[in-house]
């Protein structure tokens, strides 16, 4: 097999990275994908940085054993904790990360506030601090740590009362503000976007980082001469560390949503 025919590796702490994989399938339909979700160890966002780094290395080793040609860290938390260390260790393979899409949110904000929902770790790491320094002079940016939300989504709860109450509780203190946009800074959150719209209304723009990440993936494949040239539809293979049989079913269900 030549390098171009090898699959693209995707990693997330659980089923969240499927939201990025979905976008990738639209842009790169002829590529094969191997997805690994570490649902056994999710959530990452409330662990310490060293632990997340160790788990991320282990996941990337697993993907490399599957022969992937590039790795996408489809997890904001793992990206903020480990991307620099990953690039130092795996020098021969392109590694693409994801970060909260603050730039497009600030661009549409027209002086109003922007809320950024993410895991506690993403919002306290240096990478996010650097992003804030870039943009918070222009706009009022409100970081909103959402501990507990990943657990609900990992259990397949993406709509209904429980999600609705969780989101209402998180957002109620900002109801007096004119919020232009909400950034989904965790790859699990696009799956609860419909519930979020019910609460904040259609006018609030909801942005996630998947499109930027997929564009970056395509650029990397192109510049490294790794685009698959076959014309038939690619294959997606999903692995999970979870001991719960439902996790793989949930992953395929989310992929089809
Ligand atoms: N999908 C991960 C992210 O983008 C969730 C992290 C977690 O497991 O807490 O941040």
UniProtKB/TrEMBL annotation:
InterPro entries, per the entry: Asp/Glu/hydantoin_racemase (IPR015942), Asp/Glu_race (IPR001920), Asp/Glu_racemase_AS_1 (IPR018187), Asp/Glu_racemase_AS_2 (IPR033134), Glu_race (IPR004391)
Presence of keyword Cell wall biogenesis/degradation: yes
Amino-acid positions noted as binding substrate in the UniProt annotation, renumbered to this chain: 12-13, 44-45, 76-77, 187-188
Positions of the catalytic residues: 75 (proton donor/acceptor), 186 (proton donor/acceptor)
Reactions catalysed according to its record: L-glutamate = D-glutamate
Pfam families, alphabetized: Asp_Glu_race
An individual GO BP term: cell wall organization
Biological or metabolic pathway of the protein: Cell wall biogenesis; peptidoglycan biosynthesis
GO molecular function: glutamate racemase activity
Keywords, ordered alphabetically: Cell shape, Cell wall biogenesis/degradation, Isomerase, Peptidoglycan synthesis
Keyword presence, Isomerase: yes
E.C. code: 5.1.1.3
Family, per entry: Belongs to the aspartate/glutamate racemases family.
Known role: Provides the (R)-glutamate required for cell wall biosynthesis.
PANTHER family attached to this UniProt entry: GLUTAMATE RACEMASE
HAMAP family, alphabetized: Glu_racemase
Name by which UniProt lists this protein: Glutamate racemase
Organism: Clostridium estertheticum
Gene assigned in the entry: murI
């Amino acid at each position: 097999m030549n390098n171009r025919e090898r699959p693209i590796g995707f990693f997330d702490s659980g089923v969240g990275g499927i939201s990025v994989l979905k976008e990738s399938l639209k842009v790169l339909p002829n590529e094969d994908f191997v997805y690994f979700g570490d649902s056994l160890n999710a959530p990452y966002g409330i662990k310490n940085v060293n632990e997340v780094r160790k788990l991320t290395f282990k996941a990337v080793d697993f993907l490399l054993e599957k022969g992937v040609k590039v790795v996408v860290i489809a997890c904001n938390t793992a990206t903020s904790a480990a991307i620099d260390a990953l690039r130092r260790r795996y020098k021969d393979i392109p590694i693409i990360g994801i970060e909260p899409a603050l730039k497009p949110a600030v661009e549409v904000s027209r002086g109003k506030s922007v809320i950024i929902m993410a895991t506690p770790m993403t919002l306290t790491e240096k990478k996010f601090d650097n992003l804030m320094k870039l943009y918070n002079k222009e706009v009022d940016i409100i970081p909103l740590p959402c501990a507990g939300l990943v657990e609900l989504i990992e259990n397949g709860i993406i709509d209904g009362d429980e999600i609705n109450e969780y989101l209402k509780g998180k957002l109620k203190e900002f109801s007096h503000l004119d919020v232009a946009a909400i950034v989904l800074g965790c790859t699990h959150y696009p799956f609860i976007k419909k519930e979020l719209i019910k609460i904040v209304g259609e006018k609030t723009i909801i942005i996630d980082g998947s499109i930027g990440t997929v564009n970056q993936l395509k650029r990397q494949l192109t510049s490294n001469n790794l685009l698959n040239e076959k014309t038939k539809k690619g294959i997606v293979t999903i692995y999970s560390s979870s001991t719960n049989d439902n996790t793989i079913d949930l992953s395929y269900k989310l992929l089809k949503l």
